Amino acid sequence: MTSTITIRIAAPADAAKITEVINVAFHIVEGFFIDGPRIDQPEVEQLLEKGAFLLAESGDKLNGCVYVELRGERSYLGLLSVDPACQQGGLGSLLMLEAEKYCRERGSRFMDIYIVNLRTDLPAFYERRGYVENGTTPFPPDIVTKIPCHFINMSKPLYQGHEQ
Predict the structure, then answer these.
(1) Are 93 and 129 within 8 A, CB to CB?
(2) CA–CA separation, 95 vs 77, rounded Å?
(3) pLDDT reported for residue 37
(4) For residue 56, which of 114, 106, 122, 6 has the smallest C-alpha distance?
(5) Nearest to 138 by CA among 123, 152, 124
(6) Is the pLDDT of residue 133 over 60?
(7) Cα distance between residue 2 and residue 151, in whole Å
(8) What is the CA angle 70-23-32, rounded to 5?
(9) What pLDDT shows up at residue 121?
(10) CA–CA separation, 148 vs 125, rounded Å?
(11) Is the pTM of this model over 0.70?
(12) Which of 32, 83, 79, 75 is nearest to 57 (CA)?
């Protein structure tokens, strides 16, 4: 990453840029089992009402994003997306750390994620960051896939050794 990255919370006006970066990032890694865009702008706008997107930017360019939703003592993290031109530079890890910090500062004690079982590279990525597998969830029946698949559920504690 050659330029300075800033992290900020998305505003509704960012929905189009968020939709674009998610679809570009996911098409490359999910195209082998799913056709079409990963998300559309109305879905992003709905998510912005339920949770928050953290954006990683350099200047005016959106390089990546991640969605977080506070759910009591547990939070959900999803749609971790990094522009393909910015991948393999630590931006995904930075977004994960910022998302965990965001949720921890708002009282969450655990972070939950769901990864598609066909993405065999992902469990190790998340395990290196402290996540542990704890079950599976069926893939949404309204999404047509080329290959049968399901989600692997993973979680991580967000507290650090002592309760406050």
Answers:
(1) yes
(2) 10
(3) 87
(4) 6
(5) 152
(6) yes
(7) 35
(8) 110
(9) 87
(10) 23
(11) yes
(12) 83
Q: Tokens at residue 78, please?
A: 């999803």
Q: What is the pLDDT of residues 58-78, one digit of tens each?
A: 988 999 999 999 999 999 999
The DSSP secondary-structure symbol of 146 reads S
Alpha carbons 36 and 144: distance in angstroms, whole number: 10
Beta bridge partners of 69: 76
pLDDT in tens, 4-60: 999 999 999 999 999 999 999 998 888 889 888 889 999 999 999 999 999 999 988
Q: What is the CA radius of gyration of the chain?
A: 15
Q: How many residues does the chain have?
A: 164
One-letter amino acid at 106 equals R
Gap between the Cα atoms of 100 and 76, Å rounded: 10
Q: How far is CA 110 from the centre of its chain?
A: 15
Query: Which residue matches tokens 């993290």?
Result: 77
Both tokens assigned to 41? 């702008």
Helix axes 41-50, 15-30, angle to 10 degrees: 110
Reported as type and span, the H/E element at residue 100 is helix 91-105
Position 28: which residue type?
A: I
Sign of CA dihedral 155, 158, 161, 164: negative
